[in-house]
Every structure is written in C-alpha cells, then in structure tokens.
Design a protein that fits this description.
ten-stranded mixed sheet, Spore Coat Polysaccharide Biosynthesis Protein SpsA, Chain A, 10 strands, alpha/beta
Amino acid sequence: MFLSIIMPSYNVEQYIEDCLTSCVRQEISRDEFEIIVINDGSKDSTLDVVNAFIASHPTANIRVESQENRGLSATRNRGVTLAQGDYVWFVDSDDWIAENSLKEIHACVKSHDEPDIVVLNTILRKDGVDTVIDRKLTSETGDGKFVYDNSYIFPYSGAPFYIFKRAFLTDNELFFKEGIYFEDCLFTPSALSMTKRCVYYSTPVYIYRLRENSITNSSISEKKLYDSITVAEELTKKIGDNRSIYKDVLKDAACRTYEVLFRYYILKSDRMTQKKFLGILNADGNWKSLLTGVRVKHKIYYFIMRVYSAFKG
C-alpha cells in the first residue's frame, strides 16, 4: 500500500465531511491508500458524521478508531502505529486535500526512488480567501537542509505540509512529543535534519484552513511559554543525536523558537509574566549556548532580549 492518511479528529463536526470527501475523490486504487480517522474523545457529533460518511461510501478504505482525549501528538503517534502504508500523511480534519492529487504524488514518489519526505505546497484559506503559499524551491530534489534553509516559512513548520516515509519515521524514532503545544515546531526540523532525500511536489495539494480559534491565533498562556522553551530545549538536545545529519537546522530552529517566544509571547504578556520568563531565558543559558555559528539575526534578537531584560526584567 502506498499511503496512509492519518486524520486526528476532535470536535470538528462541521468540517470533517469536507475533509473526508476530498480524500476519497482520488483517481487511485482503494488498495493503494487508506484513511485512518482517530476520534480523539470528541464531545460533539464528529463520530456520528464519520460513521455516516463511511456508511454512504462503502467502497472507500476508511476505518475509524475512538479513544479518550489524548491530544494531537498522541493521536498522530497512534496513527503511525496503525498505518499500513509505505508513506503517511497527517491531514488535519478541518483542512482538505486536492481532489485527484494522490495519483500524481504516487507517480512522483516512484520516479524519485521513494524519498524519505515529500515536500508540499499549500493553499491557505483565511476569511474565505485562498492564497497559494509557494515555497519556490529551485530544485525538485534536495536534502533536508536545502528544504529548511529555503522554504521553512509560515506555515511550513506544520507536519501536514509533508508526506513522510513511514519507515523513515520509525527507524529514526521520529514521533510527536506528547502533551505540548507547538509539537510540529519540534517534529518538522527534527525530521528535516535527518534526511538527504526529499522531493518537492510543487503543485499545491493541501488546503489549510486558518481558523480564529486555532492555536496560532488563540490567547497567550503560561503553558504556551513553557512549551516553547521545551521545544527549543528538545531541539538543542537533538544536536547531539548521531541520526541528525544537519546540526545547524536544529540550532537555527531552536533560535527561531526562542525568538518567537520573546517577540510574540513574552512581549505581549503582562508585566509579571514577562519578568518570570525573561528570568528563565537568562538563567538557563540555553539560548546563549546556541549562538556560535548561527546567523547574525539570531544574535541580534538575543541581544535585544538581554537589553530588554536589563531595563524591564
């Protein structure tokens, strides 16, 4: 089997039918791909919608699993263990994929000797307006460093914008860290740091719905600040992993995480929270330890944080 589409689902009754419809409208044999819906303890009618869809599409290769709510990371990890496809695609249940796209993606994978990662373009839908977020990569093939250095822009930290060879994930123990926000900001750079074999499929095939209540747009909390620090620290630890070929990808991603934490969370927090987390950043020294050999802008942001701490901390 070529592909397993892993679809974590939590309280998405108004979106999931569209997602499922897009996934079954494919010009590829049902024996070549499966759809695994994991109902992560939904409290609305998500499960009813999925079961009704399965009943009305008896020839589609769809199965549904239900569990108590465990969060996105744990649900995706479970999907990998259930998958039978050579490749896995983490499709969020409030998004959808282009119809009749799997046949061409399959052909692309076969013609490039089954790479570890298929790198995708996306269409961003916000307030009813669609925008293609083009990576504009200059080569159809490359390593993880090439992809990271040239196209790691919003929203391409997200796992759904890549298709992964399942054996590549399991052989390298690449799983999502459970219980945290921003798990993709840890997972995606880690995966890119471990591969020399990527192929770029430039036709936009993933349609990303940016919702008002998404994690990106939701309110600041101390948990998000702590989880950002966790992501940066975990990326730093992976620099010492022999499976990580491109250490500078991890270092750069960790610096970016600290910068986002400082610019978009700490600076927008109340005075007490600012003081607390500026103290943490200055005390643990992890951000400072990353600055050797990184881009100048990373050093500048660290310097700004230190100056701000001196006056406001």
